[in-house]
Design the sequence.
């Protein structure tokens, strides 16, 4: 799950994207905590909250298959640079 760690660590940079914050109806406190939280478990929970909001909006990247299950990620355009670092 190296991509998850990279995504979680990149969250403060991702949250600077004004269009994302305007497109999701999340309280300002969520955006603030995404940028400032340093606790590993709390940051992971905030990323899960963000991903759930993107899934609810219909913009999450859905990966997987019916037999094995599905995994929702933020839109590819937000994490593509991070995802490509390991290749």
Sequence:
């Amino acid at each position: 799950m190296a991509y998850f760690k990279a995504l979680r660590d990149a969250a403060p940079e991702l949250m600077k994207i004004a269009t994302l914050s305007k497109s999701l109806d999340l309280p300002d406190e969520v955006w603030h905590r995404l940028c400032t939280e340093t606790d590993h478990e709390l940051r992971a929970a905030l990323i899960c909250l963000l991903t759930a909001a993107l899934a609810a909006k219909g913009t999450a990247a859905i990966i997987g298959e019916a037999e094995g299950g599905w995994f929702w990620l933020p839109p590819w355009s937000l994490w593509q640079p991070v995802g490509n670092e390991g290749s």
User: Anything to note?
Assistant: The mean pLDDT is 76. The beta strands are 61-65, 69-73. Helices lie at 2-14, 18-23, 28-36, 40-57, 76-84. The first helix runs from residue 2 to 14.
